[in-house]
Amino acid sequence: MYIQSNRKTPGSDAMESAIDNKIPEALPAVVRAWLSQSSQILIDSLGEELEALILFGSAAEGLMRASSDVNLLVVLRRFEPERIDRASAVLQNAAAAVELHPMFLLAGELSLAAESFSVKFDDIAHRHVVLYGTDSFEGLTIPRPLLVKRLQQVLFNLTLRLRTLYAVGRAREESLAAHIADTAAPLRRSAYAILELRGDRPSSPKAALESLAADLGGEWTNDLQNLSKAREDLHLDPGTAAKLILRLAELSESLRQQAASLS
């Protein structure tokens, strides 16, 4: 979750690198600074064991919201703790300042990760920026049956979470917006994957969800606008959150049924 921070940012006298030219310019300056410094320390610390640094998610598109994290995939040949230790202090500061979250993955684990988290890695394959090294996603193919099955699992899990959130969390309305914001990513990723499996290519995960919601009939505009508001502001108007949770649970179950039909 990215929130504008008052922490001191990396100094302007830090060594410039080619990475700076690859970081999306639309990102907030504080995010760009920490991402640049974190990438440089990883390159220096990991040396020949580092295969790639890949920015993914909303930050890769230059889009940051109040609920956004900065997600960085670190692809390694080997995981050597003593090398990781050299970068830990900077990574900890970046996590505190801008919610920068690295994922350390061995190059040989990419296929397993794509199988285990196929919806997430399908999304990464479509939305990423290579800051350093080679593009690990070039040529990566996730088998259709696997993606369909994982889609159903992700959406079923989300539906169960939303039902529980309604039952247990509705009394704490002030905290519900953050939980609702967390549902945007799996809903949008799943909608994009469903349309992709149908042979369509939506312009974005957000547009994909809007398209599938429109196909359901009924009025979903306000619900999706409130979902975006929760993600952007971490705040919803009083009396909105509980009703929205029920609507999103309905939407999630509908998407699961659509995913099931693809098999």
Task: Write up this protein.
The protein has helices spanning 18-22, 29-46, 81-98, 110-116, 118-126, 144-169, 173-197, 205-215, 221-233, 241-261; strands at 50-56, 70-76, 100-106, 128-133. The longest helix has 26 residues, at 144-169. The chain is built from ten helices and four strands. Helix 5 packs across helix 7. It has 263 residues and is an alpha+beta fold. It is globular, with a radius of gyration of 19 Å. Helix 3 (81-98) links the parallel strand 2 and strand 3 (100-106). The protein has two domains: 18-133, 2-Layer Sandwich (Beta Polymerase, domain 2), CATH 3.30.460; 144-261. The protein has a four-stranded mixed β-sheet with strand order 3-2-1-4.
SS-based structural class?
alpha+beta
Which range best describes the helical content: under 10%, 10-25%, 25-40%, 40-55%, 55-70% or over 70%?
A: 55-70%
Order of helices and strands: HHEEHEHHEHHHHH
Count of distinct structural domains: 2
Q: What is the average per-residue confidence, as pLDDT, rounded to a whole number?
A: 91
- For this entry, what is the oligomeric state of its chains? single chain
Helical element count? 10
The percentage of residues in β strands lies in 5-15%
Number of strands: 4
Placed side by side, the strands forming the largest sheet appear as 3-2-1-4
Radius of gyration from CA coordinates: 19 Å
